[in-house]
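Lab meeting, item 3. Inverse folding demo.
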């Protein structure tokens, strides 16, 4: 197991978490390489037809993490020039990189074309014209897909729903046909694929199947106009179990069958953009308990990590399992587990039942491998945590803890 208890001690693979903390300090993100490999292989083996898994870098952009997937043959789904830079530095094959996002600047488009990535996922008519203009300046043709918004409800948190009419993402389904016809006439555009992504943290994959059927229907209509596709990018969004009592991990085998069934009539390669599924449960955030506090009947466990380190609970009211790093069969308490940030929204759990952890001991916040460090900030002028990658019985720091000097780098008086 990737994170497990033995004799009351929490282990990351074969390493005691306390040993890591003793050397590296807190707060600290700890990742399990074995989990990443296992999840990738589970996803990869489910599909029978040709496909590329382009890891969603926004989920966890550490170079060492991206490199784990690059060595397994993965590409990258990127949404900025910086993420493209990271993916290339981590050894990802440029021909397996797809560029998403609604607000690509000319310099970002130019960087993508110059590096000859697989394709740019275009999200508006304005962007299509910008890609054509930049490609013309470079005397090149840009491979593109349109991100089509199929208006399918993913039944997830509204902040991570992306496939409805009211969302900012993609080209509306009823406008995509005409925009593809326009793209066909642009001299510096090569129509390469079609892409859609309806949302994140989906535990029921049927909405992805429903969206796939709508995309397949659009592809048939475009085929009648002489537009053929080399790839279909199904996006990401497959969820993970955060709450073992309420969540059930979706069946990747069922998901694979659904997608392959939807596109069985087309001679295309499938592209997937999983992020959270590959890394979410492969990471924990470890924090030291600093104080206990009682306000009337309300108890607080105050720790040294804050919402600036892990934003999801504050942003989405997201659930994360929290447990002691060392279990001692102490009395259980019900408390708010909070950090040092000067915001009432700075919490990891509210009215959370946990074995009481003494001051100076540690808690682990689980399912922190995705959208943890990547969403971290220096709010309240707090240095961001270290990141550690565990591999079997060894570990290494893959990002050093920021220093006070790092906080003011580039600033002048």
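The presenter then showed the designed sequence:
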């Amino acid at each position: 197991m990737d994170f497990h208890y033995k004799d009351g001690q929490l282990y990351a693979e074969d390493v005691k978490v306390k040993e890591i903390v003793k050397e590296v300090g807190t707060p600290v993100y700890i990742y399990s390489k074995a989990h990443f490999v296992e999840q990738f292989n589970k996803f990869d083996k489910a599909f029978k037809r040709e496909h590329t898994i382009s890891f969603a870098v926004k989920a966890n952009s550490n170079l060492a993490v991206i490199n784990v997937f690059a060595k397994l043959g993965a590409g990258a789904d990127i949404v900025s020039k910086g993420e493209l830079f990271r993916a290339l530095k981590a050894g990802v094959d440029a021909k397996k990189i797809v560029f998403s996002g609604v607000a690509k600047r000319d310099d970002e488009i130019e960087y993508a074309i110059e590096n000859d990535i697989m394709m740019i996922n275009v999200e508006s008519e304005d962007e299509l014209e910008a890609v054509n203009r930049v490609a013309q300046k470079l005397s090149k043709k840009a491979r593109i897909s349109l991100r089509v918004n199929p208006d399918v409800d993913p039944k997830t948190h509204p902040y991570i729903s992306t496939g409805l009419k009211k969302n900012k993402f993609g080209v509306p389904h009823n406008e995509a046909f005409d925009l593809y016809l326009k793209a066909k006439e642009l001299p510096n555009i090569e129509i390469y694929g079609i892409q859609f992504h309806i949302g994140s943290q989906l535990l029921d994959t049927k909405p992805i199947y429903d969206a796939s059927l709508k995309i397949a229907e659009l592809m048939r209509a475009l085929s009648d106009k002489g537009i053929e596709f080399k790839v279909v990018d199904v996006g990401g969004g497959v969820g993970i179990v955060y709450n073992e009592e309420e969540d059930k991990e979706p069946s990747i085998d069922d998901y694979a069958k659904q997608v392959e069934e939807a596109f069985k009539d087309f001679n295309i390669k499938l592209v997937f953009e999983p992020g959270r599924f590959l890394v979410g449960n492969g990471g924990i955030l470890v924090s030291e308990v600093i104080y206990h506090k009682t306000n009337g009947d309300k108890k607080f466990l105050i720790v040294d990590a804050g919402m600036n380190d892990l934003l999801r609970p504050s942003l989405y009211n997201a659930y994360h399992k929290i447990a002691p790093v060392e279990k001692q069969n102490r009395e259980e308490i019900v408390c708010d587990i909070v950090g040092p940030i000067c915001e009432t929204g700075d919490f990891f759990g509210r009215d959370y039942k946990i074995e009481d952890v003494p001051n100076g001991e540690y808690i682990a916040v689980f399912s922190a491998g995705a959208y943890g460090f990547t969403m971290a900030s220096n709010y309240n002028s707090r240095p961001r945590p270290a990141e550690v990658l565990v591999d079997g019985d060894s570990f290494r720091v893959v990002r050093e803890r920021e220093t006070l000097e790092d906080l003011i780098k580039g600033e002048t008086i």
